[in-house]
Please model this.
Amino acid sequence: MNAKEILQASQLDILFDGKNKAYGAYALRKTYHKRIELAMMGTGLVVLLFVGSTLLPRKKADASPKVMHVDTVQLKEYKAPEKKPKVIPPPPAAAPIKMEMQRLTVPKVVDDHLVKPDEMPPKQTDNIKVGPVTQHGINADGMLTAPPEVKGISGNGKGPGGTGNSAPDYEGEFLSVQVEATYPGGAANWKKYLERGLRSQVAVENGAPVGLYTVVVSFLVAKDGSTSEVKVVSAPDPDYGTAAEAVRVIERSGKWNPAIQNGRPVIYREKQRITFKVE
Model:
């Protein structure tokens, strides 16, 4: 580029003299100011539209309250559907397993001609099982089964195991039960309770000499597990306060697990032996 062309040329032409102007950088720089003007005009137009939209008058909302009309509704009395109680039939009672046994024959010394055939004693054998009646059934060693219901040893309602035709009195006190009353948690918890609750030095405090002082106390355990009628069965004489202490600690023992007879809780009298040691 000569001196005359340099005076007439722009700064951009001088910069790109002798270079490839078709590459793109030259065209971008040459149109730079024009693109900036177009961008400013577009931005200004967008701003004007936004400002104009905010200044336009808006339609005012209707401030008058609306009235809701409710038609009259008549409510009918609601009746819950009747629920029929679900009847659960009791499970069928399982028949007890019969076991081979021979009726116990009470020995009597009589003449041979007076012995009836059905009263003849059975032959001596180790496998015989003796019971209240004679019956045929399973012959299995070590197998336990409930014998037929009889009243008393001889079946006539007399003697232990029966009281005639009357049913057991479940409201009275039982002298023997199938499951005895127990303290909650078993014998271990009962022992801990006695060790914690008893005043072991009560005999010493009352001037007892060296020795052992054993007190036996009986008490009723009701069907609900409560204890009552705590009384001393036997105690040393003098007892040096040991009897009263034994009664006190049992009266405060709380609820027990009641005794069970035929699957029902019953009233049962328990006994407890307590020994005080003076060293």
